Amino acid sequence: MTRRNLLAAVALVTAIAGVSLADEPPKPAGVSPQTAFINEQLAKAWKANNLKPSNKADDYEFCRRVFLDLIGRIPRP
């Protein structure tokens, strides 16, 4: 698995799990310890690799990104 595919898989899992992909992990009152831990780990990895997450995507753009990263083509209508 390439690094790009791995990052796409992580993005997909975090999106499905409802984990925020903000620059700094949010810490509202209702966030579970597991979610806070994942957010902190993502923020550390981004900072260590000089990465900045993409802006929040709508459903169409998200689906297109996942298809391109995992399958290598855009989705069919």
Describe the structure.
With 77 residues, the chain is mainly alpha-helical. It has one domain. Helix 1 runs antiparallel to helix 3. The mean pLDDT is 78.
Q: pLDDT average, as an integer?
A: 78
Largest sheet: none
Q: What Rg, in angstroms, do the CA atoms define? A: 13 Å
Structural class designation? mainly alpha
The low-confidence parts are: none
Label the overall shape: globular
Query: How many beta-strand elements?
Result: 0
Helix fraction by DSSP (H/I, runs of at least 4): 55-70%
In N-to-C order, the SSE pattern is HHH
| Distinct helical segment count | 3
The total number of structural domains is 1
Oligomer: single chain
**End-to-end separation:** 27 Å
Task: Furnish the topology, listing elements before pairings.
Layout: H1 3-17, H2 33-48, H3 59-70
Question: Key terms for this structure?
Answer:
77 residues, 3 helices
In short:
This protein is mostly helical. The protein contains three helices and no strands. The protein has one domain (3-70).
